[in-house]
Design goal:
Elements: H1 3-15, E1 31-37, E2 46-51, E3 66-70, H2 81-91, E4 98-102, H3 108-115
Parallel strand pairs: 3-4
Antiparallel strand pairs: 1-2, 2-4
Length: about 120
């Protein structure tokens, strides 16, 4: 997927109905979008955005830890987790890790399903 396609696709996923452009958030080639990801555990597909840390492309044999951020409307836009993680990684304060943002279902009903082990 091209960088332009990621920019167009990731912005709406991360911001829901809000305009991502209003946040002046640049999306780089460090992001990967997996649209409509299917899971046997969820009732509907979810968009998943993955941030790749510095060195990911060149360290092909390394196994990276993963930080999963659920209900991901704010993970990369408002919270800017990648902007927090990158300098920590580069300074050696934390080891390189992948950050995976799983979008919520979009409705209160879907959010309830996401965060409870049983249905009402």
């Amino acid at each position: 997927m091209s960088l332009a396609a990621v920019c167009l696709a990731v912005g709406p996923v991360m911001m829901g109905s809000q305009a991502a452009l209003a946040q002046d958030r640049a999306v780089t080639e460090d992001f990967r979008l997996h649209s409509a990801f299917l899971s046997k555990f969820l009732s509907q597909p979810r968009d998943v955005v993955v941030w790749l840390p510095p060195g990911y492309a060149t360290d092909v044999d390394r196994h990276f830890p993963v930080l999963y951020m659920h209900d991901g409307a704010n993970v990369f836009v408002s919270w800017r987790i990648d902007d927090i993680a990158k300098p920590l990684i580069e300074s050696g304060a934390i080891e390189p890790l992948l950050v995976v943002m799983v979008a919520n279902g979009g409705t209160d009903r879907h959010r309830f399903d996401d965060y409870t082990p049983t249905k009402p």
